[in-house]
Amino acid sequence: MYIWGSENLDNCWTNFDNLSEGSSSEGYGEILFPEGQDVVVDFSCELQSGFSENFILEINESISIRMKFNIESGNCGGDECDLTLTLLRGDEQISQFTQPANSVNNGNDYTTGWDITVDDSIRTWSKDTRTTITVSYAVPAQTNGPCAVPDPLGQVDCSGSFRMYYSDEGGEPGDVYANFPIYVSITDPDSNLGKTSLGPMFFIIPFLAVTLLLGWISYREEWMTGEISEEKEPFDINTWASNSVEKINPLIWVPSSIELTRNSSKEWRKGGDLTSNKTRRIVTLCIMYFAQGLPWGFASVVFAAYLVDNGTSAGEIATLFATVALPWTFKWIWGPVVDAVFIEKYGPRRQWILFAQTGMALSLGSLMFIPDLNGQIELVTRILFVHNIFASLQDVATDALAVEILQPDEVAKVNGFMFAAKRGGIIVGGAALGVLITKIGITGVIAAQLALLLLIVFIPLTLREKPGVKLFPWSKVDAILVDTENNEVINEEEESLTPWADEEEFRVAKNVGYNVSATKVSI
């Protein structure tokens, strides 16, 4: 960083581009003080054009600031008249350098040896940060030595001066500069010197390839239809290759996918409880897992980056994430609670999911009432700890619901869909909300996430877990028949059929009975 200024030090600025236009042609700025006048200066050199990008400094390296002065003044015996230099990041004081006036006031050039060790508190710098170096010096006029006695002939110069040198104009800062040990630029990939930069396509192409492969396998193995062949035919490589080529043909799988989507939509609209509606139970479980991933992506990506960008130390962030992970470590405690405590008529799992989802929304929404998230990081940590207690409870209740409503042949594939949905929530919470934070700020992002969570609440709120449960206290329940010996629900349609309806002997007997009753016997 270069340092420039005017001839009389009424204007001083810094930049990273060696733009010395307007700076003193003498290479320094100087203020002269008449004999008997105290040498007092106080000015600031502010960064002119700002940093080009956000960046992070190398830990344990040093910010090196070299400034060169030539001062003539009297002596001073107190600390209040030291040469004092201060580096500011916005209004925050990063470091202060002092040099006793008596060691720099002899009229000789003096260069500072100001080195600031980088730690977590000053590691992160934003390109919009207002960076300033202030200079202050206040020392009495020269009154010692030859200046201590009158000089009627004017042969002794007892005036004072304060000169500050600027950076050289030849492209090198010379003796005057400020060097920042940049570790990595946050937003500019070209500044990652010495590191390999991998473009997004390096990750996108394998991701798409794996997605297509899974989709093809899903279609070929008929995961979505649930059809399981009772008899396995001998494996034939030619038949397998022929069938595989046919199934990857867009003319075949595209219409099949459209038909599958249409059937799933039709089944959803048909309604019914989760145990009898396959589409509803799969979608419900996936949405519940999406709701778990959404706040986790926000906290681990967006919120962590926000805290770092606003000066929160690495230790405080580590404490935050260690704390919010505790509920997930001990979530096994919820298992017996969810199994033992519930109101049967409202569904044993649904009520816990609603309770947990509501708690997640309320705890997240409370963050909007904290004006300074960085300044109150301990309070934020406690709130996110409570939020994750509810999130872990929802995870246990959702898993219990999945165990009860999924068919044996659905468990493996639906479990995969659920975890994919959770990763989708993490992606939305991390990437999508990360883009939004630059537009609407941290409060707006929290509000957007809160709206999504409240919207998701309507899924378990309006779906029946199993036959015979009530959505609300005022809801009506369809009557069902239960086999008290086996504790199984009796299908009324099946019970309405007589056991002999499809047997040949009883059909013959029925026809004979009709014929006899229709014949008139006369006496």
Question: Which secondary structure elements does this structure contain, and how are they paired or packed?
Answer:
Elements: E1 2-5, E2 12-15, E3 28-33, E4 39-47, E5 55-57, E6 62-66, E7 68-72, E8 83-89, E9 92-99, E10 106-111, E11 114-117, E12 124-125, E13 131-139, E14 160-165, E15 177-179, E16 182-185, H1 201-220, H2 237-247, H3 250-270, H4 278-309, H5 314-324, H6 326-329, H7 334-340, H8 350-365, H9 377-405, H10 411-461, E17 481-483, E18 488-490, H11 492-495, H12 504-518
Parallel strand pairs: 2-4
Antiparallel strand pairs: 1-2, 3-14, 4-13, 5-12, 5-16, 6-11, 6-15, 7-10, 7-14, 8-9, 8-13, 17-18
Describe it.
This protein is an alpha+beta fold. The protein has four domains: 2-148 and 156-191, Jelly Rolls; 202-228 and 239-270, no CATH class; 278-481, Growth Hormone, Chain: A, CATH 1.20.1250.20; 482-518, no CATH class. It contains twelve helices and 18 strands. It has helices at 201-220, 237-247, 250-270, 278-309, 314-324, 326-329, 334-340, 350-365, 377-405, 411-461, 492-495, 504-518; strands at residues 2-5, 12-15, 28-33, 39-47, 55-57, 62-66, 68-72, 83-89, 92-99, 106-111, 114-117, 124-125, 131-139, 160-165, 177-179, 182-185, 481-483, 488-490. The protein has a six-stranded mixed beta sheet with strand order 1-2-4-13-8-9, with no helix packed on it. Strands 3-14-7-10 form a four-stranded antiparallel beta sheet, with no helix packed on it. The chain has a three-stranded antiparallel beta sheet with strand order 12-5-16, with no helix packed on it. A hairpin with a 4-residue loop joins strand 17 (481-483) and strand 18. Helix 5 (314-324) packs parallel to helix 9. The longest helix has 51 residues, at 411-461. The protein is elongated, with a radius of gyration of 39 Å. The N and C termini lie far apart (129 Å). Mean pLDDT is 76; it is low at 187-197 and 492-501.
